[in-house]
Amino acid sequence: MAGVRMREQYLEIPARPEAALYARKHVRRVLGEWRLEELLDTAELIASELVTNAVRATAGTGAPVSGEAAFDAPEYIWIDVYRAAGRIVLEVWDAGRTPPAPRTAAPDDEGGRGLHLVDALAENWGYRRPVTGGKVVWCTLSARA
């Protein structure tokens, strides 16, 4: 991505189980402001899945809970929502460095389907490792012009 983009719809969230709730509310508010109600359900579901994975990845780093800033204390994750080239982009940062990979879930497993849902619902998705650490998992959704 060329240039600098202002983070107008960025939210830092404690890496706790209720983080998905805050992410869904954030996405609902942002898309509502942008009058993209037709994307609300899909974007909320994807945000919830990505944030749940981010919480798990951050817990796996063994970071102590201390209340410091997000990049110094990986007990936080963040979500960003922005528009680019007729698309909505959702990005979720966590402290883990392990690439996201869809799992094969047994029929009675409670988890393991999140990235399959993201893959089915998003136009595109992937991840990157910022030089500051951790990883960002992103996806795009097509938005009306």
Protein architecture, described:
- With 145 residues, this protein is of the alpha+beta class.
- It has one domain (10-142): 2-Layer Sandwich (Heat Shock Protein 90), CATH 3.30.565.10.
- Helix content is 30%, strand content 24%.
- It is built from three helices and five strands.
- The protein has helices at 19-33, 40-59, 114-121; strands at 10-14, 76-84, 87-94, 124-128, 135-142.
- It has a five-stranded antiparallel beta sheet with strand order 1-2-3-5-4, covered by helices on one side.
- Helix 1 packs antiparallel against helix 2 (40-59) and helix 2 (40-59) packs antiparallel against helix 3.
- The longest helix has 20 residues, at 40-59.
- The chain is globular.
The beta-strand count equals: 5
Q: In angstroms, what separates the terminal alpha carbons?
A: 21 Å
Q: Runs with pLDDT <50, length 5+?
A: 63-73
Secondary structure: helix percent: 25-40%
Q: In summary, what is this structure?
A:
With 145 residues, the chain is of the alpha+beta class.
Lay out the secondary structure.
Blueprint: E1 10-14, H1 19-33, H2 40-59, E2 76-84, E3 87-94, H3 114-121, E4 124-128, E5 135-142
Antiparallel strand pairs: 1-2, 2-3, 3-5, 4-5
Helix pairs in contact: 1-2, 2-3
Considering the chains and any ligands shown, give keywords for the structure.
single chain, five-stranded antiparallel β-sheet, 3 helices
